[in-house]
Amino acid sequence: MAESRPDWWRDAAIYQVYVRSFADADGNGTGDLAGVRARLPYLAALGVDALWFNPWYLSPMVDGGYDVADYRAIDPAFGTLAEAEKLIAEARELGIRTIVDIVPNHVSAQHPWFRAALAAPPGSPSRELFHFREGRGPDGSIPPNDWVGEFGGVPWTRLPDGQWYLHLFDEGQPDLNWDHPQVRVEHEEVLRFWFSRGAAGVRIDSAALAAKDPALPDFVLDRDPHPFVDRSELHDIYRSWRAIADEYDGVLIGELWVSDPSRFARYLRPDELHTAFNFDFLARPWKASELRASIDQTLAYHAPVGAPATWVLCNHDVTRTVTRYGRAESDPGTGFDFAAKRFGTPTDLVLGTRRARAAALLSLALPGAVYIYQGEELGLPEVSIPRDRIEDPMHFRSGGVDPGRDGCRVPLPWSPDGPSYGFGPPTGAPPWMPQPPDWGTYAVDHQSPDPSSLLSLYREALRLRRTEEGFGDGPMTWLDSPEGVLAFARPGGLVCAVNFAAEPYTLPAHSSVLLASGPLPDGHLPRDTAVWLRI
Hints:
This protein is α/β, with parallel strands linked by helices. The protein has 14 helices and 20 strands. The strands form five sheets. The protein has an eight-stranded parallel β-sheet. Strands 14-15-16-20-18 form a five-stranded antiparallel β-sheet, with helices on one face. Strand 14 (about 475-480) and strand 15 (about 485-490) form a beta hairpin. The two termini are about 20 Å apart.
């Protein structure tokens, strides 16, 4: 659908690759670029238009690669820059574009800039690239302000010389000072570096956080502007990035947690970002009224600036879909909220899988682009990681209450048996994160020959989405339907219906059934089932 058009991004199916857990070619227990290159035929057969790679740069991996030490070097655990260039070129030969990840809010504590800042005295030019401040109180032992970090806790760390530095995330991720021209120039050069090597787009991590109030004042509830979220200075930054992207026909994709519709839309004006992630849809519970409200809200957010909507069910930070959708409606329910994550939350994986199948058809039928996190096409559940194997700093900064995000980052199963289920070679090291004993039942090789598997459903859905009229960018119209049923029409007589209610839904008159997430007994749509019809 999107391969040859300059506006391919408006309706692309984009597959998220978390390299560390995708495929391990060299047998060291960590996924690598050679592993991705070897599996490109799988991704082409799946039918995706682009690959979004989580950071693959040089990093101490304090936060899964989102602590970047050098944007121009690939982390040795993943491969080399030459391999990345080959991967980008080989994927493009298969009709698949590449999107890289940029993290403007911070760098690694191992980045040369920050190492120079630590070696320099207070007040030195090197420290002006970051947010260094004196502490409060008689001896400076109180942090410079009262902010709370994105991982919880105090986002300040004190150095032996008495100064503090700001890190909204982990202490190994010092925040950059975007008021400094060198910071802007460096990131613009990084964009050119990757666009010139064939990257088709850039995903911008935590896109609403980079700019800070220079005074770094205490937080005051409901005060506008916020001291570090959604500040107006960001728009000038992203306008300069858009000018660079346009030189290469590149695309900018923002990770934006902005709740106000008008402020969200400002980032998607024609001279700023092309698209932004839609987290509201992901966070909603499995209820017809909730998901319809999210769809209406999302389309309304994007309409004023003519930007396409995006849809996603899961990513590398979020509880896996089949696990989330299999939970009871009571707290935390089937939606997602970082604050509600706890160990041992029960789930019904059979129910969750049935709902995940329906959700796949729902999301793939909506107007705009769609993101698929690796393993979602296999129906992988969230894995309960032993406490002594957890690596995610979110877990540790929560005081051990939050189980962290490692459970959705477990290495993929490719074959139904073997020491790593095909993730690495048979004689390779154990995967960096443990796989559960039943992992082989979800394996690609196990599901591929089964026409009823979730993998087969995704393959056929993506094929239809790419070849049939009515999918992707464009209008949609809600159809009259009973309470608990979502039904909408797309161009060319395409209809998608999803039943959330206990009572089976009688399908409208139609010429053909394109695809269903489950059986349709006697022309009825059972509960937690979706269907695509041609009227």
